[in-house]
Amino acid sequence: MTFHQFAYRNVVRNIRIYAAFFMASFFSVFVFFIYSMLVFHPKIENGFLGTVPIFWLVIAEIILVLFSWFFIFYSMKAFLEARTKEFAILLHLGMERRQLSKLVFLETIIIGTISILFGILFGYAFSKFFFMIVREILMLDALPLYFSLEPFVLTIAVYLSAFIFISLFSVHFTPERKIIDLIKGSNNVHVNVLYMKRKAIIGLVFIIIGYILALLTTRTTLFTFTLFIPVLITIGTYYFFSDTAQFIVDRIKNKKQIYWKKSRMLPIAEQTFIFKNNGKMFFVVTIVSTLAFLSVGLLAALSSYTSQYDKLNPLGLIYKGHMNNPYEDAHIASLVSELEEKGLSYHLTSFTVLKQTSSNTSYGVEVFKESDINSLLFSYGYPMVRLSQGEGMFIPYSEEAIEDLSEKVVHTVLLENNVAIKIDQVYPKLIFPSSIVGLNSIIISDEDFKKLIHPYKGFPEVEPGYHLFTFDIPQWIETKDIGLQIQQRVAQEYLKEDYLLPYYFENAGLNYSYLLSAYSLFTLVGLLVAAVFLLAAGSFIYFKLHTNLDSEKRKFDVLKRMGITDGELKKLVTKYLFPQFFLPWGVALIHSLFAFIALQNILENIANISIVKELVLAFGFLIAIQVIYFYLIRWRYIAHVRD
């Protein structure tokens, strides 16, 4: 038998040990390949729906590659650790370490090649179904399956080089151990259960400070806190698993009424050694799981915004300009002409909005005329406004504002023209997007509006009001090509420190196309990345359990000889495995929840969006997956220790 045949037969004989490493490698190749099929698709080669550059897809693929390499490298280390006794026997029989390195290299290449072939094969078979999902998400007419060498060559090159590099690195940079140590395996590992109380406290303090900063995050502090919070949480999480967890277990062990009750002593005592030996692994699992939760949570947040976009932006086109805007007539005529060329029906309403000073607050208030508002409400199909002289109505700027203003009664005088107004009602629906009207906007009767002959007190230094043109367009999604020149000019001006244009333009259809493209991109990338992260997090724990399986089996054999029943064995295994699975994921879930509390506060202030429902559904789904995965691993673990 040649050396190459020995390596091949070694793989076949140890298929149970190799299966976990093969599945980890196979799934990484599978995800990368179907993503590459999307990147190289002829319909997307010039950009993502023409708005999101292909550059960002490439960046996402690079992230997948880097994490996949890390995932395979960690799997490789666990795989080698599980075979220490086999290596010890080969070395004891006279195999040189150089030959052992060659053996590991050949076996890794065999497994890697098989996982690449199967990953590409299943990836190409799944690509048709994947493209069907992508087509529906992106609302494309067709996204057919195609054949091109680029995805195949790229996948083979990336992962074959990964297996070669990782196998060489793992073997040559693994510290040499004595044969007797390899034979004893994990039993020979000296466990120092000491922890540093100072680090244990620092870990908790850093995490708590990170959570507090997340709760205090606002639009103004977002950038600064985004730099500090991940650093605090990362350091705190590392100390939590290296010292804080042992500190907590030690405190529990001192509570005899808890520690000595029933069979709690065995699993609690074991956790001390588990956290000390596996602290770094738990830290990696927590960070990886947090990234997975954040990926899915961001998708839920984007989904919430896209689903509420129509309600938050009831108008197709909005043009707002100064009273003396010289571009007004030309721009409005251009927009009308473009709409008619595309055959889009629309209802144009023009407003003259005046600024006045309220005696109640001494601040400026934007005043709308009743007939102008009714013209827009008629196109919406909303109830008309009916105001008598001296009466006013609040214009809501958000859904919450409708409830807040409904019970408010204000008696005010528009000081510049001495017009007394009683405001005791709010319009029950959103009329304008929150970005258009001010927080203090009211409707008054036409009779009162005619009395506003004197301009705002700051005139001429301050604009006395503005002209507003709204286009209510039933097919507003198709307006993305309307007014592009005006939109580009406005966008360029926004990049400057001071906005000096005498007009502002907003195209809901164009904004929605950008939003939909970004959401679609994040959906495709996020789901794939989250899938890889979740598989990796679970696999890290599985590999560690598999590595120590023989020693753990001997412990349970001793308990069985002492008379432990089958039911007690199951309960003991559950108590033993539960912290290893759910503590890292629980910490990751709490990290993610505080991150999304901060995001919810920002979105509520900026766009009045709630993402609570979507996050509850997304996290509930993830928790259900983890519970199912836990019981699958528990089932296999019990089968092994029973054998």
Characterization of this structure:
With 643 residues, the protein is of the alpha+beta class. It contains 20 helices and nine strands. The chain has helices at 3-13, 15-39, 54-81, 84-92, 97-138, 149-172, 179-184, 197-215, 222-253, 256-259, 265-312, 328-341, 370-380, 399-405, 446-450, 484-494, 508-547, 549-561, 566-607, 612-642, and strands at 317-321, 347-357, 364-369, 391-394, 410-414, 419-426, 441-444, 465-472, 503-507. A nine-stranded mixed β-sheet has the order 5-6-4-7-3-2-8-1-9. A hairpin with a 4-residue loop joins strand 5 and strand 6 (419-426). Helix 11 (265-312) runs parallel beside helix 19 (566-607). The longest helix is centred in the middle third of the chain and has 48 residues, at 265-312. It is elongated and about 105 Å long. The chain starts with a helix and ends with a helix.
The biggest sheet amounts to: 9 strands, mixed
Instruction: Summarize model confidence as the mean pLDDT.
Output: 76
Helix content: 55-70%
Order of helices and strands: HHHHHHHHHHHEHEEHEHEEEHEHEHHHH
Are there runs of 5+ residues with pLDDT below 50, and where?
47-53, 186-192
